[in-house]
Design a protein that fits this description.
With 623 residues, this protein is an alpha/beta fold. It contains 23 helices and ten strands. 33% of the residues are buried. Strands 6-7-8-3-9-10 form a six-stranded mixed β-sheet, with helices on both faces. It has two domains: 14-364, ABC transporter type 1, transmembrane domain (ABC transporter transmembrane region fold); 384-622, Rossmann fold (3-Layer(aba) Sandwich). The structure holds adenosine-5'-diphosphate and magnesium ion (MG).
Length: 623
């Protein structure tokens, strides 16, 4: 009768080929695991410091302790219930072999198994809900923290990273942290508990047989060590190749217009193909290692099954082991499968999670701009902005800005002219404090601007640049930019001031939706949307940095005239590469190679027939 019964112990599908895998893995993965664990403990003990990976872990554990404990409790219950299954099987087999079979009395065994299975399913749901839920929450909290922080970084800091690098921290790295905090924790607790318990039960049944069955492990250990380290390297290479492929695709999509206009679609596709081929090759080599790994380990893990059958079977025949114990042993050997795999897996998850958390904290530790201060110092009324002894250069650039003295009278219109790369935009960025300079260089009246919190300082400004940034939303939203909406008349007036009423479709459809980068507008239209955004709440100081370079001279003159006449009494700082349109401002500074080479009223500069005059003449000749 016993011969007819097919027993599939829990987890035995994988069990036969891999059931000893993890005990084996220790030499390769346990070291890693112990390393990660030591790091965890050391970091828990370490002194609290701003944004250390452990500080974040500690904070998370503190806020989610009840959830984590509930999850772990459910996990432990599942493990205990699972360990009961072989005991029921053992009793069932013994019942079949020893007593006179009574079909009704035997029913209690399948019912017990069913009860265990349902309870396991319920508690498994709970641990997934609690443990994976807290891991998701950890990811969410870190993501919001990271996002909030990157918003407060200075432009210089942001520019020191590539977009891809920052995006990778928001995606891959956060994913790795979530996996470590969720499945890593599960694998660690579950694997350790189940593994130890299964071993204890096996030793309890028969220590000699347990020792014999664990004999093939050293061989599998060597195979695992060699292949997992190769696979680890392969996995990293595959991630890199994937990032490279993504970047190539991103470039090809965002640069599709250029590719098409040069008829170079094939060149673009070739770059993607090359990256894709590289990615495929890396993955194939990874798959090759994996295809060796499983069969090779399967040989040795099946050897333990052979040992069990030959020695355990013999002992069973000789009556040293009863049939129930034999089956229970087989089941525990099956249960061991998962812990064995877990050891290797958990080491990997923790290592990746740790590396990712370190990368995330590296960004969190980048210094924020001091945007707000407690004292809330509002800038007092002032007559002028003064720059004194300012020198500035970019890292790794030969360009040098040097301004011994420059005065911008407030309430007036000032223009800055000069050749391309003479330093106009850099100077304006410094004035708006988008680029930070040391104290005692820029003064607002008599007050050093670095004394004024950035939030107050930047609120004084409206800024439109040569390269407008358009968001994929309506034209109106692009203009109002989160500020209270204007009534129809005011909006019309604004569109008129920024020259947008010259375009019928924009005037009639301010609700028109703009696609990514505003590519469904012309360059000049995008620039005027950006100007409308800058003058929306009539800022104290308006900066137009060559913000009309893509419109014709007539439109530029019209827009500037309208803006200047409407903003009488406010400060306007205007850069234009067309000196003729600047004749309407109060004062002009002329720059060359990072220095102010001339300044004065427009007519004075024309009469002087100096550098400004030569730029003016060049424009006339160009037409
Ligand atoms: N972020 C930057 N990093 C390094 N060099 C820069 C950066 N921005 C501008 N520069 C350099 O500074 C110089 C002045 O640039 P800019 O102020 O933009 O000139 P302009 O506005 O007069 O055309 C140029 O030589 C440019 O290459
Ligand atoms: Mg510029």
């Amino acid at each position: 009768m016993g011969g007819k019964i097919t027993i599939i112990p829990t987890s035995h599908k994988l069990g036969s080929s891999l059931n000893l895998l993890g005990v084996i893995i220790p030499s390769s993965s346990c070291i890693k695991l112990i390393g990660s664990f030591k790091w965890f403990i050391r970091s828990i003990m370490e002194k609290r410091q701003a944004h250390s990976p452990m500080e974040m872990l500690r904070e998370h554990i503190k806020s989610y302790l009840p959830t984590i404990l509930l999850g772990l409790m459910s996990l432990v219950i599942v493990d205990i219930l699972q360990l009961f299954i072989p005991i029921v099987l053992k009793d069932a087999i013994n019942f079949l072999t020893q007593s006179i079979p009574n079909p009704n009395a035997f029913l209690k065994y399948p019912i017990s198994i069913l009860g265990l299975a349902v309870s396991i399913a319920v508690f498994r749901y709970f641990w997934r809900y609690f443990i994976l839920g807290q891991a998701k929450a950890f990811e969410r909290d870190l993501r919001s923290k990271l996002y909030g922080h990157t918003q407060k970084l200075s432009i210089g800091t942001i520019e020191s990273h590539t977009t891809g690098d920052i995006m990778a921290r928001f995606t891959n790295d956060l994913n790795a942290v979530r996996m470590a905090a969720g499945m890593g924790l599960v694998a660690l607790v579950d694997g350790t508990l189940l593994g130890l318990a299964a071993l204890v039960f096996m030793l309890h049944i028969n220590p000699t047989l347990t020792a014999l069955c664990l004999l093939p492990m050293p061989f599998v250990a060597v195979i695992t060590k060699v292949l997992t380290s190769r696979m680890g390297r392969g996995f990293e290479a595959s991630q890199k190749d994937f990032a490279n492929l993504t970047e190539k695709v991103r470039e090809a999509i965002s640069g599709i217009r250029v590719l098409k206009s040069f008829s170079q679609e094939e060149w673009g596709a070739g770059r993607i193909q090359m990256a894709a081929r590289l990615y495929a090759q890396t993955n194939l080599s990874l798959a090759r290692h994996l295809s060796f790994f499983l069969p090779l380990t399967a040989i040795f893990t099946n050897i333990s099954l052979c040992i069990l059958l030959s020695f355990g079977g013999r002992q069973a025949i000789l009556g040293e082991l009863d049939a129930g114990q034999f089956v229970a042993f087989l089941s525990y050997l099956g249960i061991l499968t998962w812990p064995m795999m877990a050891v290797g897996w958990v080491a990997n998850l923790f290592q990746k999670g740790k590396a990712a958390l370190i990368r995330i904290t590296a960004i969190l530790n980048e210094e924020e701009e001091e945007y707000e201060r407690k004292e809330h110092l509002e800038p007092p009324h002032a007559q002028e902005i003064t720059i004194r002894d300012l020198s500035f250069s970019f890292n790794g650039s030969h360009f040098m800005l040097f301004v011994p003295e420059l005065r911008i009278p407030l309430g007036k219109s000032v223009a800055i002219v000069g050749r391309v790369a003479s330093g106009k935009s850099t100077l304006l960025n410094i004035i708006a404090r988008l680029i930070q300079v040391p104290p005692n260089r820029i003064f607002y009246g008599t007050l050093d601007v670095t004394e004024i919190p950035l939030c107050h300082w930047r609120r004084l400004f409206g800024y439109a640049t040569q390269e407008p940034i358009i968001f994929s939303t309506t034209i109106e939203e692009n203009i109002s930019f989160g500020r209270p909406k204007k009534g129809e008349e005011d909006l019309k007036d604004l569109l008129n001031s920024s020259g947008l009423t010259l375009d019928k479709d924009i005037q009639e459809q301010p609700q028109r939706f703009l696609i990514e980068l505003g590519l469904n507008l012309s360059g000049g239209q995008r620039q005027r949307v950006s100007i409308a955004r800058a003058i929306y709440d009539n800022p104290e100081i308006l900066i137009l940095d060559d913000a009309l370079s893509m419109v014709d001279v007539k439109t530029e003159r019209h827009v500037l005239q309208t803006i200047l006449s409407k903003r009488k009494g406010k400060t306007n700082i205007i850069v234009s590469h067309r000196p003729s349109v600047l004749m309407m401002v109060d004062y002009i500074y002329v720059m060359d190679a990072g220095q102010i080479v001339e300044h004065g009223k427009p007519q004075e500069l024309i009469a002087k027939k100096g550098y400004f005059y030569s730029l003016y003449l060049q424009e006339k000749i160009r037409g």
